[in-house]
Each structure stands twice: as C-alpha cells, then as structure tokens.
Amino acid sequence: MELTVAVVLVGSLATFVFGLSKTAIPAVGSFGAALLTLVLPALPSTGVALPVLLVGDLIALSFYARHVEVKVLVRMLPAVLVGVVTGFLVVDHVDRHVAARIIGVLLIVSGLGEIARRRRAAAHGGQPPAAGHSDVGSLALGAGAGFSTMVANAGGPMMTLYLLRLGVTTTTFLGTVAWFFFALNLLKVPFSIGLGLITPQSLVISAALVPGIVIGALVGRRLVLGMSRALFENLALIATTAAGVWLLVV
C-alpha cells in the first residue's frame, strides 16, 4: 500500500462518510468501507480504517456520551463478542466479497422485515412494539454487528436495526452507538495487529485520512440536530436497506 493522490482523495471521501455515520446515520458507514476498497486492497483497508474510526468514535462521544443506555450495551455484549470472534476466525479463510454479499442479503431481509413490521403497526393505528433484548432477532443482530464489523467494517447497519427494534430515542440511539463502536473498535485493535492489518505503513495512510472523518462528523452533528425522530428512523431504515443492496452488488 502506498499513500497516493487517489488514496487521499477517495479515502478522504470514504472517511467523510464514516464521519456522517458516527454522528448521524450509522448505517451509511458501509458505503465508506466500500469506497475505501476502491483504492486499497479489501483486507488491508480495514486496518487503515480502524484508527480513523476510533478518532470518529471519540468525536461522537464528545457529543453523545451522556446519552448512553448502559443496559443495552451490557445485554448485547455476549452476542457481539461471539460475532467478533467468529469474524476473526474466518477472516483469513473466507472470500471477503462472499462475506459482504451474505451480510448484504441479511441486511436487506432484516431491513425490509423491520419496514414491514412498522407498516403493519401503522395500519393498525399504533407504533411497532419494542423488541426485548433477549428476542431471537435482536440476539442475531448483535452477533451480526460483531461479525460484520470484523470482516467488512459494516457493523453500523446491524446495530441500527438492533436499536430500532428496541424503540430508543434518537439521542439514546446515537449515544449508545457511540459507546458501542468505541468499545468494539478498541476490541478489534489487537486482532487487527495480530492479523498484520495495522502496520506502521497503514498508520501513515490512516493519519492522512483523519481530516475527512472530522469534517464528516461535524456535518453529521449539524444534520441530526434538525431531524425529527420519525425522519431519523426512516432515514436509518432506508440507509440500512440500501447498505445491504450496496454490499450485495459491489
């Protein structure tokens, strides 16, 4: 990997999208991950992205840290750890494009299922009932978030669906996501070093791409301040389903 003009330009656009995902719509982070693979090999790109994502996590925490729902994090942790460990074990043995397509299909099915659930509730004049933390679908989404973030840096859409099923407020959603991904990305660091994904060379590229995530995070914060809860949830669902389509076709 080399730090070229193309890497800086496309990579900065990718990290700008990462920034938006940190402070506004988490599901769009998958588009940033895909953009980064246009200029960097798929597997090494995850090592480049991880330190940049940690910078974005810290920015998100500066805005939303106090809004965290600790019980959500504690209850989903076991399922997420299963997903991360599974991702670590298979990342060197499974074609990443195949893995991305599988994740894409799961996102499309889950996203459309959640949209249908909400439409049914609206047709009966009410809000969709919040799912429990131990609900099978919620546990699967927690494991999926850990797995997809390890193999494709695409945990945002799964986490989005998980929290939408719980019916949390917008600020609680963003605060919980901020803490979740900060903890998860820290957890991924030793795995990524062990796999040779984070190296002195990759850190040079990461440093060059940091301004993109800073700008994206600030823009995302500005956008979300003017959103109603209904608009936020609709955009989150649309972005999640679109991310699934994106992973399926790229």
Structural class: mainly alpha
Whole-number tally of structural domains: 1
SS summary, helix count:
10
| Low-pLDDT stretches | none
Radius of gyration: 17 Å
The largest β sheet comes out as: none
Q: How many strand segments?
A: 0
Give, in order, the helices and strands.
HHHHHHHHHH
Please tell me the overall pLDDT.
84
**How large a portion of the residues is in β-strands, by DSSP E?**
under 5%
Question: Would you write up a description of this structure?
Answer:
This protein has 250 residues and is mostly helical. 80% of the residues lie in helices and 0% in strands. The protein is built from ten helices and no strands. It has helices at 5-23, 29-36, 42-64, 70-90, 96-123, 136-152, 155-166, 170-194, 200-225, 229-249. α1 packs across α9. The radius of gyration is 17 Å and the shape is globular. The model has no long low-confidence stretch (mean pLDDT 84).
Task: Fill in the keyword field for this structure.
250 residues; mainly alpha; 10 helices; 80% helix
Give a topology summary.
Elements: H1 5-23, H2 29-36, H3 42-64, H4 70-90, H5 96-123, H6 136-152, H7 155-166, H8 170-194, H9 200-225, H10 229-249
Helix pairs in contact: 1-2, 1-3, 1-9, 3-8, 3-9, 4-6, 4-8, 5-6, 5-7, 5-10, 6-7, 7-10
Short description:
The chain has helices at 5-23, 29-36, 42-64, 70-90, 96-123, 136-152, 155-166, 170-194, 200-225, 229-249.
